[in-house]
Write a structure and sequence with these properties.
Layout lengths: L2 E5 L2 E4 L4 E8 L7 E7 L6 E6 L6 E3 L7 E6 L4 E6 L8 E8 L13 E2 L3 E6 L1
């Protein structure tokens, strides 16, 4: 059974930083690419970032490129999203997800396992 558990969300002021984590059980990160998505109130779930199985390739949405960094620790089977220079428009529930696709995927339907999400709120 595969489980993904996000943690580390919270309330932060605009301009601040936050790191959220995703602990994966039941599959190894060396075999799966991992993605981060978010859903803001009243909006569709959108792609944020993705890291390849090897960790050698990362991809970002234009809205977070240069501010967010995705990384992982294979020994801990955990993926991280470091978020800097946060803006109120980054407020959302953040989800991690895994996929067998080797090529970068930015749509939710390409990911087969999801966490329950963690709330990130950025105050102005």
């Amino acid at each position: 059974q595969v489980t993904l558990v996000e943690s580390g969300g919270g309330l932060v002021q605009a301009g601040g930083s936050l790191r959220i984590s995703c602990k994966v059980s039941g599959r190894t990160l060396r075999s799966y690419a991992m993605g981060w998505f978010r859903r803001a109130p009243g909006k569709e779930r959108e792609f944020v970032a993705r890291i390849s199985r090897t960790g050698g390739t990362t991809n970002y949405a234009d809205s977070v490129n240069g501010r967010f960094t995705v990384s992982k620790d294979d020994a801990e089977n955990t993926v991280y999203l470091q978020m800097n220079s946060l803006k109120p428009e980054d407020t959302a529930v953040y989800y991690c997800a895994s996929t067998l696709y080797i090529t970068p995927q930015t749509t939710p339907d390409k990911y087969d396992a999801w966490g329950q999400g963690t709330q990130v709120t950025v105050s102005s």
